[in-house]
Amino acid sequence: MPGRVITITSGKGGVGKTTATANIGVALARRGQRVACVDADIGLRNLDVVLGLENRIVYDLVDVVEGRARLRQALIKDKRLPELVLLPAAQTREKSAVSEKQMIKLCDDLKKEFDFVLVDSPAGIELGFKNSLAPADEVIIVVTPEVSAVRDADRVIGLTEASEKRSPKLIINRLRPAMVRRREMMDTADVLEILAIELIGIVPEDETIITSTNKGQPVALEDRTAAGAAFTRIAQRLLGENVPFQAFDHSEGWLNRLTDLFRKQ
Amino acid sequence: MSIVTFKGTREGVAVTLGGGAWHDVLHELTTQLNRPGAQTFFQGARVFLETGGRALNVTQIEELIALLAQHQMTLSAVSGAARAQEAFDQVRAAMPAPPEALAEEPSAPPAPAPAPSEKFALLIERTVRSGQNINYAGTVVVLGDVNPGAQVIAVGDVIVWGKLRGVVHAGAAGDENAMVGALILAPTQLRIGKQIARAPDASGPRARRFPEIARVRDGHIIVEPWMGT
């Protein structure tokens, strides 16, 4: 059975696409899934840094596409998880170095050998985003509970729907329960009310993400932290397990009703 | 009252000329045709000109035809002052017959006349998301939300069976009898004809949870509970 190509995107930058890609990849690999993480942010690569694999890069995505390296040569095996590999982006090239067709071919090749191909999309809605969207079987939108991030996510959902992909799934990242309780931050229900797509995870704001990202040790390697546990739950939901949503904010009752509603569709 | 008014009809666009100097009329017409959004509505449309009491000469009719042609519009008929109609007939007689007229089978049965109350509407059965624009030369009905950052522009009415939070323009060709109705009416900006209303800057928790309707009354946009008509 071929694997699933899942593109992780957001529109707005800095909401946690790369962190989400790395951690979902780690969480899936920890559950025995064969996972390839593809950094499609050509020219601004950092998935390798977040995964702590930067010093092992020899070949990159553009080398593969242009035939200077075989796909297998460019894949970097994770140092901790044997099931996880990274295909890094080229740092010295631009988005125009690859085409949609080449991305589709690349992901088709990868999904023959992996259960999951996670494509880390660049921010924006231009070429890099289109290249990331083209091969996707599924799309995950990362959003933070801010008006600007929600607006951009809405735009990207519209573009995804227009490209005849299945309705994307949503991760609400960096939720701060205390601020929500004080009604100083949008809560999950507020975000879902506008975006109206299926929720696949809520990740609370967690300072350990910053240190783990700097160290190249994704939090999802362990379930000890709140964010790590949240990414593990997202991986479980991707594998079809029915994991209840955590009560990060006051509106939990209404939230579960809302998510049930979208799941039924 | 504008010196040129547009009204979208089933057959084309009805253009009514008011009083004022001829060059003002032409200028206003050019402005209206070049408004952003207007072009999509008017492109390819047939124009029915109502001159009011204004008598137009052959040169003026030719100027009009040339201006409309720039927007891929054709002047189909002129009503109003007898002298304007005569001028139009003269101009038309001097022109080669338009290809659409030649294509018409003389034996074809006449199209059934539309019932006067019948209107065209565009039905949108999804959420209109940020960055998406809906433009339509009639009434637009959305079964879903219109999100912030989205735009709905209609020559007729706009009805949203959901939350309206984007920018909406009803009566975009100048019809101030057009209305906007929504289950939750909370647009970023609401325009009807030439009137513009925007959301209050202080975004307090005053969102009302019942259907509302916006119309123009005495030159202002007013919003009232939607209790049926």
Task: Describe the model.
The complex is a heterodimer of chains A (265) and B (229). With 265 residues, chain A is of the alpha/beta class. Chain A has a single domain, classed as Rossmann fold. Chain A is 42% helix and 16% strand. Chain A is built from twelve helices and eight strands. Chain A has helices spanning 17-30, 47-50, 61-65, 71-74, 100-113, 127-133, 147-162, 177-181, 188-195, 208-215, 226-238, 252-264; strands spanning 4-9, 35-39, 76-77, 84-87, 116-120, 138-143, 169-175, 198-204. In chain A, a hairpin with a 6-residue loop joins strand 3 and strand 4. The longest helix of chain A is centred in the middle third of the chain and has 16 residues, at 147-162. The two termini of chain A are 26 Å apart. Chain B is an alpha/beta fold and 229 residues long. Chain B folds into two domains: 4-103, Transcription Regulator spoIIAA, CATH 3.30.750; 121-225, Pectate Lyase C-like. Chain B is 21% helix and 32% strand. Chain B contains five helices and 15 strands. Chain B has helices spanning 22-34, 38-42, 58-69, 82-94, 99-103, and strands spanning 4-8, 13-17, 46-50, 74-79, 121-124, 133-136, 139-142, 151-154, 158-164, 167-170, 180-185, 189-192, 195-198, 212-217, 220-225. In chain B, the strands form three sheets. A six-stranded mixed β-sheet of chain B has the order 5-7-9-11-14-15, with no helix packed on it. The two termini of chain B are 27 Å apart. Residues 97-117 of chain B have low confidence and may be disordered. The A-B interface holds A 151-152, 154-155, 157-159, 161, 193-194, 196 and B 126-127, 129-132, 145, 147-149, 163, 165.
Summary of the model, kept short:
The complex is a heterodimer of chains A (265) and B (229). Chain A is an alpha/beta fold. Chain A is built from twelve helices and eight strands.
